[in-house]
Amino acid sequence: MNRLVFYILLTLFPLNIFAQDAYTLFDKQGKKISYEKFLNGLEDADIILFGEIHDNTLCHWLELQILKNLEANKKGQVIVGGEFFEADDQIIIDEYLKGYFSLSNFKDEAKTWNNFEQAYLPIIQFSKEKSLPFIATNIPRRYASIVAKKGVDSLKILQNEVFKWIVPLPFEIDKKLPGYKQFAESSAQGHGFSLPFMVEAQAIKDATMAHFINLNRTDKIFFHINGSYHSDGYEGIYWYLKRKNSTLKIVTISSKEQKKLSVLDKEHLNIADYIICFPEDMTRTK
User: Fold this and answer.
1) Domain for residue 11, yes or no?
2) Do residues 266 and 41 lie in contact, with contact meaning Cβ atoms separated by under 8 Å?
3) Which of 15, 30, 108, 238 is the 20 to 30 Å CA partner of 270?
4) Domain of residue 158, residue span
5) Is 94 part of any domain?
6) Alpha carbon of 195 to those of 89, 149, 185: distances in Å?
7) Residue 57 belongs to domain with CATH number
8) Could you tell me if residue 132 is inside a domain?
9) What is the pTM of this model?
10) Could you read off the pLDDT of 74-133 as tens digits, one per residue?
11) Which residues pair with 250 in a beta bridge?
């Protein structure tokens, strides 16, 4: 679908009409549910982990609509956070949200992903408009790269100042978790590092995101956006959050692509509290 036509359709048609062909919502058992029921299931959460597909256009649009609906219903009782910003950019984000400088300055100063303007800028702008806190949760990429090459213990050589941007060390890594085992297998090709270090790099991302969610969490709903693989199967960020506080009410969302949207594929059952299925040929952000 042409991207311009796609956005025109999104503008002209209400969510519940356009959604009939664009995506399908399922609960964990694979039962189709309405958007209204889905939204109701989010509103009592302490933390929402929206597992996205990073380059899926409709997925990004939908997470913005969910955020708008949450804010409309909760009136300032929402905190936003995302994997797509690294923790050492927090001061830049705070200053931009307070209006200290222009968007152009912001993009020059912060480390933004290639698809930032299409995918994530609307989230930032909505947070700015509604005065919602936005928390950068990810470990700075340069430190994750060090871990991938040399392991977590190699971070000990860094200056003390950098540890304010990383989960406190040491932290627990359970390499027997199915998600990490699968990640190790999928990383076996195309990497020059040993598999244990690749898993450690993934784990420190998950643990750091959980750390900054916990650090900034209040009695408001924390709406966090991350790649689905960081919370699928109730692992990753979810696992670290629960290890810290087992009483947290965490609702997980997983985004998946399927050839057919009428029935949830078996491999996606029980992967999250809610699964959003999109067409495999959905328009991509760049």
Assistant:
1) no
2) no
3) 15
4) 40-247
5) yes
6) 29, 10, 8
7) 3.40.50.11550
8) yes
9) 0.91
10) 999 999 999 999 999 999 999 999 999 999 999 999 999 999 999 999 999 999 999 999
11) 47
